[in-house]
Amino acid sequence: MALVAHDHMKHDLAEWVKENCEKLSQHKIVCTGTTGKIVEETLRSNRQNNSEEEVILDITRLKSGPLGGDQQLGALIAEGKISALIFFWDPMAAQPHDVDVKALLRIATLYNVPTAINRSTAEFLISSPMFDDPNYTPAVKDYTDYIQRALE
Length: 152
Prior knowledge:
Layout: E1 2-5, H1 10-19, H2 21-24, E2 28-31, H3 33-48, E3 58-61, H4 69-78, E4 85-88, H5 98-110, E5 115-116, H6 119-127, H7 144-151
Parallel strand pairs: 1-2, 1-4, 2-3, 4-5
């Protein structure tokens, strides 16, 4: 599953991950660079301040979003390697790499990847019985006709 957040939302996403760490630990996590760094730092700080048994997340960090991380995630989606996208989006700030963000969301939609864009939708997504079902595969529209028309 992929985790991404705009700058002003990164700490919110990291706190959400900390609160849902046990549920998320059943999944491999892929993050854009800076988001992944903040998530890892938040979890490390939580482990140092907490005597409970620690839950470790398997996190892979890509490049920072503006440096190609959003496009790397899009490629992973197109390759069928991402099962869900949690993207804490900041609707109040203009993004210099907005075209990359739109491309990522377009690819997630094209491949029917379950996508959450805020804390509430992320809560709904991970609370679904399908979230932990290893046999669930989202239906992807067949674009064969579209491809054939484009080649003619």
